[in-house]
Every structure is written in C-alpha cells, then in structure tokens.
Q: What sequence folds into this?
C-alpha cells in the first residue's frame, strides 16, 4: 500500500532505469520518505522493501513533515472551492487516480460560493489570471534580493527590504526565543501577522494579500504609545506576501499600527489605521 | 491545536462535511505553506491545495490515527502532490526559469540570511543545523526542491550512493533531534 492516500496514475509510467543498479532496495527508505524517488523506484520500494525498511520510511516521512512548518494562509476563496468540491463528490465512488473534480453544470450551486467554484474548477478564470499577473512581476523584481527568503519560506520580501542586513534582522526577530505573534484578518481579506521580540526591541509585520496602496500613496507603520504615534517607516506592497521590518526601537507594550499615507510618509497619521496590534 | 484534528479526519471518512471544514480550517495554512514553498507559484499552489483536500476527502477512510497525526498525513499527501506538479515538465521549466538565479545565488548553508515565519519553523531550522552541510543540502533539495535522489546527485556532482547515505543518515539524525510529529 502506498503511504499516500492514493496511488497516483503516473506510477505506471516510469522507466526501469534503476533496476540495473542492484542496490539493496531497503536503502531507499529515506528517499522514499522524502518523495525523492522516480515512480519506478517508488513502486519497487513498495513491492520489495523489507517490513523494517517500510516502517522506517513511514517514520521518516512523518519526521519530514516537521520541516513543513511555514504557515501561509490560503485565500478565502480556496476554502469555499474545496468545500464545494467535496459536496459534489459522491462519497462511495472510487475515483480514478488523479481524477480532477469535474464542474457539474447541471447541479444546483450554492449561491454564496458559486463564483469561487467557477474560478477554481474551470481552468484559469479572469480572477486567476489577474492573480497570476499580480504575483509574477513582484516575484521577478524581488527574486534576487529576496532569494534567501524565498528559499526558506516562500515569502517575498517587499522592495523596502533592500539589503541582506535587513533580511537578517527580520529573520532574527521571527526566530527570536522570546518572539510573540498576533495574526489579524484585515477587512480587505488580507491577513497580517505581527511578530515581535521584546529582547531585540524589534517587530516585523508579515502581510498576505495586501494590495498596493492607491496611486501616490504608500503604507506607513507606526509605533503607538501613550505619547502618540511614532513613524516606524514606509513600505509598499503588491499583493502576495510582504514582509516588513519596522524601523526604530520597539518599546514594551506599544501598539503597532499601519496607515495609508501620501508617498514619502507623514509626520503623523493622516488616515485611520487599518491594522492595530497591541504588543 | 484546540480542536481534535484526528477526530475531524476520522469523521470526514463518514461523509461529515462540517468535520472536514474544521479539518480544513485547522490545517490549511500549514498545508498551503508547504505547497507554496515547493511550487513558488501561488496560482499553481492553490490548484494543488485543492487537489490535496479533495484527495484527503476521498481517502480519509485510509487514515489510521494509531499510525500518526492527521496533520502529518495531510502534509504527506500535500508533499507528494506538490512534487508531482513540480516534476510535470512545464511546471519544472517555469520553476527553473524563475528560481535558477535563486539557487545559483544562494549558498545553501547561508542560514543567517533565511527568513522563517514561525517558531515551529525556527525549531525545524535549528534541527537542520544539527546536520552536516552535505546532509542538509541533500534533504532540502529533496524535500523543498522536489528533486529525486538521482537529480540531487547530478546537481551536486556526487555519486548516487553518497546521496542516498546523506539522505538516510540526515533523516535519521533529524528524527532524533525533532522527535515524533506533534
């Protein structure tokens, strides 16, 4: 039995290139656990490995999932789409391997997530093409500067993080032993996660889905305490993921706020903050 | 985790859609985080995440709570599907084009520059530093890069047997350091 929920159809398409190697098949346990085998090798392991090697593969596969620790909130439309798809799925039917959900034009659709279903099940719709168009340029622009971040976490660092030093500082805050975090869903549907370290006196805000500020405007972060708001730097966003290391020292107990301000930033907030998190 | 994810998955096997929705809410960020990290492309990651949850719904009856955590079961499906996708030729070409620069530009052991997004990932990162550099490199190329062990050997110019040994010893060490899944 495959350790995955179902055998994928491409298992049958692999070559036999590894048969000639005469390797003890049990040696493949770790590679099997990491999905680092070709379909033919995988099948061979499943058929020929000793029970001990199969048990080890199962254990190591579980260990490997501990590496998958990054959390990225998927768009809300995905939830509606998934729940819609399972409702359309006959419970008893044994689906062909790798079968995709077929949009069923004749079935009644729930009004609330009909649009989400359209976007997800009938190929790239307008919304999806928009999403791609929005995402790509950002990634290209930041691919070099933020390459380390991408490698580690799938996070695109916004253009405001120019240097390796800032990335290091950002990483240090997130990985600090005393780091605390607070996640907030914004009214726009984007999510913001504020992470701060009292020891380092610094904080970071990770946005998922924060769109660009209106033309001629930027986002500005603030540390807010009894004395009022103090600028913690301006930054831009372009949808997708944005990571911001706030400027200046974070004093214990301050609130972190973000507003939309004219380009270049303001001395004091001129709009209501769309994000406020108490540290 | 405040809800019993294992129970949600077990109940899903009986057709309980509400339980499945709870399962989704409790796991989606981590499942999506993994898929996104492997595929890089957000639109593709969303498609694969949808496939993963549909597969989980279909095969929930095969989940055995005695054999592991539900999140681990889900992440294994997610990893397999994301890797399938990344190996599909077009996706691979797209991905290579986008991140070729990345792999070339980033020394794999330059951990100081990495950005992590959670305490859990900081823990995983620390555990990875317990490994030798060659072990860590091989595991990361496999798990996050989606490469087969043969491709890893070609990429780093080492014999296949060496790569197998690095994967095996590295994963065993990781299991000692990290313990079992939570």
A:
């Amino acid at each position: 039995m495959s350790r995955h929920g179902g055998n994928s159809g491409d298992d049958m398409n692999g070559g036999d290139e590894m048969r000639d190697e005469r390797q003890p098949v049990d040696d493949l346990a770790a590679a099997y656990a990491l999905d680092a085998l070709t379909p033919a090798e995988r099948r061979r392991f499943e058929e020929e490995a000793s029970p001990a090697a199969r048990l080890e593969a199962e254990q190591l596969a579980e260990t490997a999932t501990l590496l998958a620790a990054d959390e990225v909130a998927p768009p809300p439309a995905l939830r509606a789409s998934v729940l819609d798809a399972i409702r359309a799925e006959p419970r008893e039917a044994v689906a062909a391997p790798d079968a995709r959900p077929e949009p069923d034009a004749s079935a009644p659709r729930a009004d609330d997530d009909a649009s989400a279903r359209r976007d997800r099940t009938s190929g790239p719709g307008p919304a999806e093409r928009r999403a791609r168009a929005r995402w790509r340029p950002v990634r290209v622009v930041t691919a070099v500067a933020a390459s380390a971040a991408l490698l580690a976490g799938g996070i695109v660092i916004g253009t405001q993080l120019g240097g390796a030093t800032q990335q290091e500082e950002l990483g240090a805050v997130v990985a600090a032993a005393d780091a605390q975090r607070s996640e907030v869903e914004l009214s726009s549907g984007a999510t913001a996660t504020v992470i701060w370290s009292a020891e380092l006196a610094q904080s970071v805000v990770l946005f998922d889905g924060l769109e660009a500020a209106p033309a001629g405007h930027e986002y500005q972060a603030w540390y807010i305490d009894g004395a009022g708001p103090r600028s913690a730097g301006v930054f831009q966003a372009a949808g997708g993921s944005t990571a911001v290391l706030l400027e200046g020292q974070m004093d214990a107990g301050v609130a972190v706020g973000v507003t939309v301000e004219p380009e270049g930033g303001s001395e004091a907030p001129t709009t209501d903050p769309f994000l406020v998190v108490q540290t | 985790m405040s809800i019993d994810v294992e129970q949600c998955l077990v109940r899903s096997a009986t057709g309980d859609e509400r339980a499945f929705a709870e399962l989704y809410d409790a796991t989606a960020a981590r499942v999506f985080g993994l898929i996104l990290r492997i595929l890089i492309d957000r639109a593709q990651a969303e498609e694969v995440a949808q496939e993963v949850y549909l597969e989980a719904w279909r095969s929930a009856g095969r989940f055995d709570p005695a054999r592991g955590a539900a999140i681990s079961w889900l992440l294994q499906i997610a990893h397999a599907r994301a890797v399938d996708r990344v190996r599909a030729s077009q996706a691979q070409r797209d991905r290579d084009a986008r991140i070729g620069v990345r792999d070339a530009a980033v020394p794999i052991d330059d951990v100081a520059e990495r950005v992590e997004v959670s305490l859990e990932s900081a823990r995983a990162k620390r555990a990875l530093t317990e490994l030798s550099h060659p072990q860590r490199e091989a595991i990361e190329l496999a798990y996050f890069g989606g490469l087969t062990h043969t491709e890893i050997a070609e990429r780093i110019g080492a014999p296949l047997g060496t790569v197998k040994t690095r994967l095996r010893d590295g994963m065993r060490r990781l299991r000692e350091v990290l313990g079992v899944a939570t």
User: Anything to note?
Assistant: Chain B has two domains: 1-105, 107-182. Chain B has nine helices and no strands. Residues 100-117 of chain B have pLDDT under 50 and may be disordered. Chain B touches chain A through 93 residues (CB under 8 Å).
